[in-house]
Specification:
This protein has 16 residues and is low in regular secondary structure. It has no helix or strand. The radius of gyration is 9 Å and the shape is rod-shaped. The N and C termini lie far apart (29 Å). 0% of the residues are buried. The model has no long low-confidence stretch (mean pLDDT 64).
Length: 16
């Protein structure tokens, strides 16, 4: 029940 996916963005943004 998260308001927004914040902890899912940092480790999914590994496209560098």
């Amino acid at each position: 029940m998260q308001p927004y996916p914040v902890p899912v963005l940092p480790y999914l943004r590994t496209d560098t």
